[in-house]
Structure formats: structure tokens, C-alpha cells
Amino acid sequence: MTSQRCRAIFEAAATKRFVVVGDLMLDEFVWGKVSRISPEAPVPVVHVTGESWFPGGAANVARNLREFAGSVAVAGITGADAAGERLLGLLADTGIDVANVRRDAAAATIVKTRIIARHQQIVRVDRERPRAAVAQPMEGIEALVSAADAIVVADYGKGAITQEIADQLCDLARAHHRILAVDPNPGNPVRWRHVTAIKPNRAEALRAVGAEDDDTAIEAVGRQLLERWNAELLLLTLGEEGMMLFEHGKPPYHTPTRAREVFDVSGAGDTAIAVLTAALSGGAAPTEAAEIANAASGIVVGKLGTAAVTLEELAGSFA
């Protein structure tokens, strides 16, 4: 991979249209300083110096895609609350189409609050109200898929992706010959069919097959999941060991990590599936797309907070 080739791939991707479907979240960061331990309990006292908010979950996938694509739309659910309003505003401000986001008064927008002091996460607070899965097809999704070049599913197991919705997406993608990329959640027993690419991490892959964390078994796990999830490609993310690509009839392709420093791994998987899909839509070969996704993840973990990678950063990593 060269910088020139990377730019050519994303020049082509910039003309494509993407749809992201999945669990939408709001990431909140509370920044502060720690100067003492609380007299009430053995915990640090954080003096807040600032707050910031970013799209999270499937919304973060859309945010990452927006760096490389001219058209990105999201479909999912938020609550009819202040957090949902903030999330939709953040997405709209970056030019992401939110017309197919349903605001549900019976739901609560999922918010993940991270308290950061001295560049370290002190604690994470998750706010979500358990809700029943959405059992009906998403309205307007057929029009979105038919108009798109690629669909990304970001399943965090929060209820946005049901078997009925997965079937609908698989059927539509196949009927319209669209790229369909999935970031799966093994806790959500959804069956996928005719998927272009699927991207579990090591823990998700091992959990999906009930295997122990054994490096010698990881290739067998990857091959098993490639068949089970009926995908053309499976990209297995391995943290500090990089990524491994599985294709039918070919040996696994391993790309070592390119991360130099790791400040925060939050959102790295979102970046990987977004960049992988963008690269494939831009004409990258599977091994090229894996190399680019690996490089993007290596860049984003060097940033503090939920972050995205830019084309300049990505192309520069191949200079």
C-alpha cells in the first residue's frame, strides 16, 4: 500500500453513498483534574474543567464514514429526550442525513459518560433503559438501501437489530447488489446471509464459537465464523496483534498493528468497520482494505476520546 494508492481508493469512495444501521448512542466526556482522594471513600476527587459530546455506537461509524464519503445516512432509534436531540444535532452538523432516525418517547437515548483525568479514564457511566427489540421492519430502509452503494450494520446488542431487520437488510443488499458490511454482536443471535464483510474482534469471535482465548485456535475460529456468518470476507481485529483477514479458498492474511501509542481504544472498532467499508466501495482489494482499516485503527487509538481519522492522516501513514 502506498500513499498514492490510498488516496486513489478514497477519491473513488468519496463519490459513493453510505447507509449506517444500528444502535445509536451519545458519547459524553467529562474532563478534569485530580488533586486529592475523597475523605468519604478511597476514590479520586475530579475537578471538572470541561465537557464534550460525540456520536457513539452506530453514530460514530457514520461520523467516521463522513470523513471519506460525500453522502452518509443513519437509521436507528433515539429517545425523545435532550440526549437524543444533542446526538441528532451533532450528526446533522457534520452533514449526516438523520431523516430515518426514529425518536421514540418510550425509549431513552443511550449515553456513555467517560470521566477523564490526566489523560486516563477514571470511570465510565452507562445510561440506558432496557427496551424490547424493535420487531418491525424499519420504515424507509428500502429507499435508503436502493439509493446507497454500501450499507454498514453496527450491532451493539441494544435492540436496534433484530432477525427481521437483518433479513430485510440482507435481502435488499442482495437484490440491489450493494456492499453489506456488519460489525456483529455475539450476544445478539442474528443470522446473516450473503454479507460482503463482517468484522468481529477477538473476544466477540471466541465468544461466538465458545472457544478459549488460544492463539493457536484463532485461525480455526476465523474460518468457522466465515462459514457460519455466510460472508465473503471476515476481518478479525486482534488488538495489539493487528488484524487477520479470512477469504474463501485463501490462506489467512495477517497485518500487524500500526499503532505507535495507545491512549484510548474507545471507538476503534467503529473506525475499522467504517474505513473497511469505504475502502471496499472505493475499489480496494480485500487485503488492501484490511491494511487500510488496520492503519486507521492504529491512528485512532492514539487519540483521546471517541475520534475519527482523516484522509490526510491515513494517506500519511503509508508515506
Give the fraction of residues assigned to helices: 25-40%
Strand order of the largest sheet: 5-4-1-8-9-10-11-12-13
Helix and strand content put the structural class at alpha/beta
- Spell the H/E element sequence: HEEEHEHEEEHEHEEHHEEEHHH
Strand content: 25-35%
CATH homologous superfamily label: Ribokinase
3D architecture notes:
The chain is α/β, with parallel strands linked by helices and 319 residues long. The protein has a single domain (3-316), classed as 3-Layer(aba) Sandwich (UDP-N-acetylmuramoyl-L-alanine:D-glutamate ligase). The chain contains 10 helices and 13 strands. The chain has helices spanning 3-13, 58-66, 82-93, 141-147, 163-175, 202-209, 218-228, 268-281, 286-300, 311-316, and strands at residues 17-22, 24-37, 44-57, 71-79, 97-104, 110-117, 120-127, 150-154, 179-183, 195-198, 231-237, 243-247, 253-255. The strands form 2 sheets. The chain has a 9-stranded mixed β-sheet, sandwiched between helices. A 4-stranded mixed β-sheet has the order 3-2-6-7. A hairpin with a 5-residue loop joins strand 12 (243-247) and strand 13 (253-255). Helix 2 packs across helix 8, helix 4 packs parallel to helix 5 (163-175) and helix 6 (202-209) packs across helix 7. The radius of gyration is 19 Å and the shape is globular. The model has no long low-confidence stretch (mean pLDDT 89).
What are the salient characteristics of this protein?
10 helices, alpha/beta, 319 residues, four-stranded mixed sheet, UDP-N-acetylmuramoyl-L-alanine:D-glutamate ligase, globular, 33% helix
